[in-house]
Amino acid sequence: MAAGSSMDWFRLSPSIDRAMRINQAAEFQSGSASFFDGLWRLNSGSQPYDKTLPPSPVPTAMTSAHFLRLACFSLFAIAPAAVARETALPLAGISYQSAEKPVDDPDGRCRLDLRLPENGKGFATLVWFHGGGLTGGSRDFPKYNGREIAFVSAGYRLSTQVPCPVFIEDAAAAVAWTIHHIADYGGDPDKVFIGGHSAGAYLALLVGTDPRWLKPHGLSPADIAGILPVSAQVTTHFRVKEMRGNTADPLVPVIDEFAPLYYVAKAGPPICLITGDRLLDTPCRVEENDFMAATLRKLGRPDVEFHELKGLNHNTVTTGAAKIMPDFITRISKGGQIAK
């Protein structure tokens, strides 16, 4: 293949061009990044376009290594789902809102990123919502000490952009999209778990306990395999209280229709409540979760776990949660017993 044709191929492939430049910058900084790492960061959105990146690494001759790389990425561009299942590369920026009912989303927050396990079929999936007090944050994959599951990192519109309860409706739409579509990627729709950190955990709990959010999608909390909230507020979220005109101290609890505690019941999906240390996590956060777990157990629920992770604060609790979530998901997926 002539040098000119390889150059034209690169110019016709801006995503590959950009991935290679991202990788070249990483190699310059660390000397250890791989070519595929550039594409990972490109598709996961973790590396925004930067004019300071090095010039496109267009080869002057098409070597066998260049050809192999281009062949891999042409397959990725043509059949992303199939390649992702083989390589665990993420599929980024998928809209989860119905095309028949478009929503006002100028910032593109109603999208999700999908990371699939290698060579898997019938796998479980964890839909994950980021934290940020309902006023900030962006899509991210959770820390997770395990492999054989899929991850859906879902964004949602923020309370600074939309009124309550639009962000809850967005979270429900992302969960519904996953249940309806994960089989297309090899997953088991009966093994869809939901979770998140902080504000994202609050959203996961509401979607998983209050049936009104999934009902418009023809679903209910019974369609969720389990809930894994990490440091969730289980009373009404402080930002929701503020939006609804509550001027009391944020620590004064409210348990109304926007509080997960309002929906404790004898039936529902298995729940794994995870918090940091009560001396280090957000004030009252651990006590709220402990109370919710105790109440569910008193109602006869055998499928409730509560973990207070000593020595971890509101931010570092995600590291500890990474060691707990895989076991919970594996046991529930296989019909196992809840840890006491």
Describe this structure in words.
There is one protein chain. The chain has 340 residues and is of the alpha/beta class. It has helices at residues 3-11, 14-30, 35-44, 64-78, 80-87, 166-181, 199-209, 238-243, 285-298, 317-333, and strands at residues 90-95, 111-115, 123-129, 149-154, 187-197, 226-230, 271-275, 304-308. It has an eight-stranded mixed beta sheet, with helices on both faces. Helix 2 packs across helix 3 and helix 4 packs across helix 5. The longest helix has 17 residues, at 14-30. It is globular and about 45 Å long.
* Mean pLDDT across all amino acids: 80
Q: What is the helical fraction, as a range of percent?
A: 25-40%
Total of helices: 10
Number of strands: 8
End-to-end C-alpha gap = 64 Å
Largest sheet: 8 strands, mixed
- Please state roughly what percent of the residues sit in beta strands, choosing from under 5%, 5-15%, 15-25%, 25-35%, 35-45% or over 45%: 5-15%
SSE string, helix = H, strand = E? HHHHHEEEEHEHEHEHEH
Gyration radius, in Å:
22 Å
Shape: globular
The structure class reads alpha/beta
What are the low-pLDDT stretches, counting only 5+ consecutive residues below 50? 1-87
- Order of strands, main sheet, comes to 1-2-4-3-5-6-7-8
List keywords for this structure.
340 residues; alpha/beta; 8 strands; disordered N terminus
